[in-house]
Design a protein that fits this description.
The chain is of the alpha+beta class. Helix content is 19%, strand content 39%. It has a five-stranded antiparallel beta sheet. Strand 4 (87-96) and strand 5 (99-112) form a beta hairpin. The longest helix is centred in the N-terminal third of the chain and has 18 residues, at 26-43. The relative contact order is 0.25.
Length: 135
């Protein structure tokens, strides 16, 4: 599983992530995906505060395989399953040790910050994204 992803980030669970059933609630996995994707984008040079282009989530999905609870720390693997002209499908896998906890995806469409019309993914960012594409 680990070899299927190009980038890894550790994500600690928080006490508040647990629900009444004692495990990390399903919606928290979406926040974790958002975190690993946007951390990578910022590190890759996307200016989330002043940049002309921004990525908007137009689709998300998650399959849950096993439960986790605080104080577990997950390994989040990131790859790109599809890289289009203005859109990208990020795929994220969550592991606890060698157990697959969840797998999901986000699709971002890059748009002009002001007009919200689709634009091409900036060239420098596209180059960095190509390093995450799986064959």
């Amino acid at each position: 599983m680990r070899e299927q992803y190009r980038h890894w980030q550790r994500i600690p669970t928080r006490w508040a992530d647990n629900d009444v059933y004692g495990h990390v609630n399903n919606v928290v996995h979406y926040a974790f995906m958002d975190t690993v994707i946007n951390t990578w984008l910022i590190d890759a040079g996307l200016d989330i505060h002043e940049g002309a282009e921004i990525g908007l989530c137009v689709e998300s999905h998650c399959n849950y395989r096993a439960s986790v609870s605080f104080p577990d720390t997950l390994d989040a693997g990131l790859r790109i399953g599809r890289l289009g002209r203005s859109s990208v499908r990020y795929e994220v896998g969550f592991l606890l040790d060698d157990t697959v906890i969840a797998e999901g995806h986000f699709v971002h469409v890059f748009v002009d910050r002001t007009t919200r019309k689709p634009v091409e993914i900036p060239a420098a960012l596209r180059t960095r994204m190509e390093g995450l594409v799986v064959a």
